[in-house]
Amino acid sequence: MGQAAKVLQLFKTLHRTRQQVFKNDARALEAARIKINEEFKSNKSETSPKKIEELIKIGSDVELLLRTSVIQGIHTDHNTLKLVPRKDLLIENVPYCDAPTQKQ
Fold it and tell me: Signal peptide position in this chain (predicted)?
């Protein structure tokens, strides 16, 4: 796949991830949309293949971080937040145990 196709694919993937991560939060959706578009526009004239690969790696890392680490919080009271984790974040949640039991 050519670099232009990789860049376009990353751009689309970041926007899809943004829509999933910040669902029902218009302010966060808009801020993320603006930031993604700004970053791509600021590097639009980049021609060095090495630099483009580096930028693609950074963008992929950001997408992974958004998808695996961001949880929405909703203010419910003066000092209270209600966390709204996505289902895909809860799948790999294995509780930690200080005293593991021995297998028999």
Answer: none
Q: In whole angstroms, what is the distance from residue 27 CA to residue 29 CA?
A: 5
Residue 74, helix vs strand vs coil = strand
pLDDT in tens, the chain (104 residues): 788 899 999 999 999 999 999 988 899 999 999 999 999 999 999 999 999 999 999 999 999 999 888 888 888 888 898 888 887 776 655 666 667 677 66
Alpha carbons within 13 angstroms on the beta-carbon side of residue 102 total 1
Backbone angles phi, psi at 72, to 5 degrees: -75, 145
β-pair partners for 84: 72
